[in-house]
Specification:
Blueprint: H1 17-20, H2 38-74, H3 77-80, H4 89-93, H5 96-129
Helix pairs in contact: 2-5
Amino acid sequence: MQDAEPEPDESTRLLNAELTQVPPLSPSPSTSPSLLHSHEWRIILITTAVSVALNIGNYISWAAQTALLQKIVCNNPYDLAQPGFGADLVDRCKAEPVQSEIAYINGWKDVFEILPCKKVHLLGTYLLLS
């Protein structure tokens, strides 16, 4: 008579021991990961440096753009007649209507900056799907 397998319980393995042992993989020369060559590192570093330089240039210009917009909005002749603005130019430029107008202008500026990217994206998607 053959040995009967024991009744499975919580401690019984779900897989055979032979199936769970995986032999170690030996790396083949064609699939082994190689280190990046010096020209690849150079391309990565140049791309990163250009990206950082462009972003820094963009962030530096924000203060000047905001100051210019404040000057334009604060010197608007229609706003000078509104009550609630102080006589001081700094008070007028920090008032809520001026700041909301600057935020409105910046929002539309951002929309028009992203429109060409979205147009190219939609065109590329259309060409890809057709």
